[in-house]
Specification:
globular, 86 residues, two-stranded antiparallel sheet, 2 strands, alpha+beta, single chain
């Protein structure tokens, strides 16, 4: 939930941008986003992905499957990801 969307719907533009960087393996936006930026976009749940992506990057694990589910029913979009073991 994001204050910028009146806590009614997710900040889909920012979610989609972060998802695109996940898909491309460009984790810089994840590393370079501040806590305030995550919170302003209502992406507190995405903070859990930061250590995951850091670990996958360090291990050299590659994303083998992912899906972005945009929703207007729940207050957050959903992402599923599978990384190939190294």
């Amino acid at each position: 939930m994001s204050d910028s969307t009146w806590r009614v719907r997710p900040n889909t533009n920012r979610d989609a941008a972060m998802y695109a960087s996940l898909q491309s393996g460009d984790y810089a936006p994840w590393r370079n986003s501040s806590l305030a930026e995550f919170e302003d976009a209502g992406q507190q749940e995405m903070l859990n992905w930061c250590p995951l992506l850091g670990a996958m990057n360090e291990l050299g694990a590659k994303l083998s499957y992912s899906s972005f589910v945009e929703t207007h029913v729940f207050n957050s979009n959903k992402v599923f990801a599978v990384f190939e073991p190294v």
